Records
---
Amino acid sequence: MEPSVVKKSFLDFETPIAELENKIEELRYVQTESAVDISAEINQLAKKSQQLTKDIYSDLTPWQITKIARHTERPYTLDYVSDIFSHFVELHGDRHFADDLSIIGGLARFNGTPCMVIGQQKGRDTKERGLRNFGMSKPEGYRKALRLMKTAEKFKLPVFTFVDTPGAYPGIDAEERSQSEAIGRNIFEMAQLEVPIIVTIIGEGGSGGALAISVGDQVLMLQYAVYSVISPEGCASILWKTSERAQEAADALGITAHRLKALGVIDKIVNEPVGGAHRDPRQMASFLKRALNDAFRQVSDLKIPELLDRRYARLQGYGRFTDTKPAK
């Protein structure tokens, strides 16, 4: 299907763009149904729409970026796997309890190099979202990820992880199977895994659910992704007893790529196409592949002791604070 005929969905702050795009579609329909050539008018409106999109996206609030990160048309892990990697073979199960479909993983090749790919998958339609639990993993998901990482270590394969989750699943059954232990174990094991680990936050990076697969030697983050200790809604519910102040919480949390880069939490921001990754998934995959290649080159030749020392120092160095004197 051609990109021009794909039905686009727009967020609330994109209403002016939506109106222009609808006008362009109407003119394209008129041109196909009549002999009148109005291609010049269409091209002019298309340029205006492109410029308007650039203007709106140049001044986004953290809450608007959160909405983009959650966009239902945004590329997910499997989209990037198919566009960036080759020879992907999915592996299933944690060998303890079950196969959690919210986390996918398997063997693949990156530019010809054998590797292990692991990532969170939200699901496109209602049925798949249910099967994948909206990208919220249970303990068996994190244990599956750990099993695959240990397999990669055994065969000296680099690990690529893709983070996209609102957070770990908070249900009673997950707690019964030791959700916090599974997350903590993954962080502990990833800190000392003797192969390179490249992490990319592609959508939402929510709380411990994200941390469980995001300890790495290089951490990349897409321009309109978010990465936070808690969702804005969750933060607002705790602080102000209402999720309606989520926008205020998003401003305070520092969840955007540029803020996290300044804090040293991530290493590189991967630019997205105009209007976000969902507007041109193929171009986004091309941008990300180039960034992954650069990140992998930086760590692929390091000796294991140096790799582990750098990774541990990086993990321990998260965050910034200012020491202030109490008022007299």
---
Amino acid sequence: MAGEMPISPFWSPARHVDRRPFLQARGAIAAAVRAFFAEQGFVEVETSILQVSPGNETHLHAPRTEIVCPDGGRAARYLRTSPEFACKKLLAAGEPRIFELARVFRDRERGDLHLPEFTMLEWYRANAAYDAIMADCIVVVAHAAQATGIGQFSFRGRTCDPFAEPELLTVGYAFERFAGIDLLSTIRDGEGDRGALAAAAGRKVRIADDDTWSDIFSKVLVEHVEPHLGQERLSILFEYPAPEAALARVKASDPRVAERFEIYACGVELANGFGELTDAQEQRRRFQSAMAEKQRRYGESYPLDEDFLAAVAGMPEASGVALGFDRLVMLASGAPRVDQVVWTPPVDES
């Protein structure tokens, strides 16, 4: 707008001095996290950023590049959206407990809670149930708060005590409580019944003609469930419906749900964890289905990492989680936006 003063870049001393306390908090939290994992017998790993496939979820988008081979040929590569594929290969190799503070990349993401390049904290336990990973998450969040001395998290008018006992809710219960929807009744043979969910949610969210079951599920989750999560204490949302299993195994005692959970603080999603799927054939089926939907929606799809699928077949039973490290630092430092807690924000920052 004419007449407005231009905003100085992040590297100007006047702006950097305001951001520096958040960046110092970042270092303290990283040290506390590393100390926790060392005490637990984890090995810190560093996995490659360039991948044959960046991940095979419908709505995740990755930057694409090429490498030039020694013979002059060119091969497509992607900047990873997660270190998950590489970490699971290390589980197959025999590593029992690993973690990584990984740089990851996602196209089409920018906002107070999203960056195109950010840090993901991922860790995996071989031969451990996914409630062990849930317990880890609670401790990691508390360690972050201890590292900064903050008494409570706050974001957009919501507060959360990181030391209080978390609230545990199944996804089915949360949909019933906050949206009045019997979600599990819309799942049959592990698949979502689009018509049944549309009928139940029709007065709750706006439904487009081409919305899938998963689209409607996501709209209800975002509009009616997530705003209630992580209020005054952490919320652990678990037993995701089977159609949203992603890379998680289906629960043996109830095939309508999967061993997947997410953790929220102040309405902000912090972590997404799985009891890991070790059925390579089923994982391939899910990836193919997701990539067909991605092609339909966005006119593009990503290749499957055949090396990863081979590793899945050789993986031990395991559980793992991806935690948004920048978001955790934001909450634990009191920063108003996630770009305030990264040393060099995107150059288009305003």
---
Amino acid sequence: MPEQTSSTPAPADAPGASRGLRLGSVLGAPVLLAWSWFIAAGVIAVLISPWVARVRPDLGWMSWAVGVLFSVVLFGSVFLHELAHGVTGRLFGYRVAAIELNVWGGFTRFEPRTEPDSPRAAWVSFTISVIGPVVNLVLGGLGWLAMDAAVRGSVPWLLLFGFTFANLVLGAINLLPGIPLDGGWALQAVFWRVTGSPYAGTIAAAWFGRIIAVGFVVGSLLLPLAQGQRPDLITVGWTAVIATMVWFSASDAAKHATQARRVETYEMSRVIQPAVAASWDAPLATALEYADPGTGRRPLLVVLDRQGLPCGLVDRTAAGRATGADHRVHEFIRPLGPWIGAPADITAPHLLESLTHRPKAAFCLIMEGETLVGFIDLQEFFDELLAH
């Protein structure tokens, strides 16, 4: 499945990077085989080998070799699925960060988008998402045609049968409209196009993913019963494992989208405090008496140094205890620390984006043109985002 908003990957040996074998590079990105793939390959071989032995009892222990070979063929199909995501993304101008094969199949990670969200971006996301399952369905069709050219029951025929069945199932399941499946990300793109918000689309598609997860388990129980048979415990168990993965992946996507949605709709007025600039040698009494003409509130006093740059805040508590009429604002200054400037119409997403360039900033000064009008304590801003 594609991951279109991931960050640029670290090298394979960097902390947090995927652990496994680097098979090479494609589209300028590493192809990684996670160690968990070997678990999946072993499980697939165990599940397939008994079927091969029933069809071809003469193969003996070679049925296990066919099972292992089938797992390799299957993950080759998964690689082509992910490669289709990558090639399509490249055609639309995205850079592929990594392709990984793992116990769940695989994923293609793209570097972050540099273009703003737009209707075009939504349809690009839709196209990238659906192309992988479409490739699997095409491979399944080609495998079906190739089976006619092989001797029925031969090892090539068995591999083609498994290849065809696996690709058709992989394509069909991945087109189901629920995150984390590719069809879910396609549905997310449709909601994104309709609502204008990728985050609202993710939340909606994640709920469909949860419904599909429940449907997997219910189906594994009810379908055999509807046919007058008892549910197979192994089938139910594996279905439950897959459903659990789908459920938690959908929930995780919804959680992150909810947080991002909160940022998208956050009202910056909640944390912007009125502020005015005071020159270094401005009379303290005059500065303390200033009140905003519109609201009557006494704003924060941001002190400018002798070069005209913000350098601190007036400590009103200490200044209120001062006696005498000759005090200047710089005598009651609290150092400001690292800060960034932003326009009065700054939004929460744009502020967070600005902070990626100034990660050590502790405060934000709000400007209307060249006039200081507001002040944000960034710690308060972060606390607000997490609390609501």
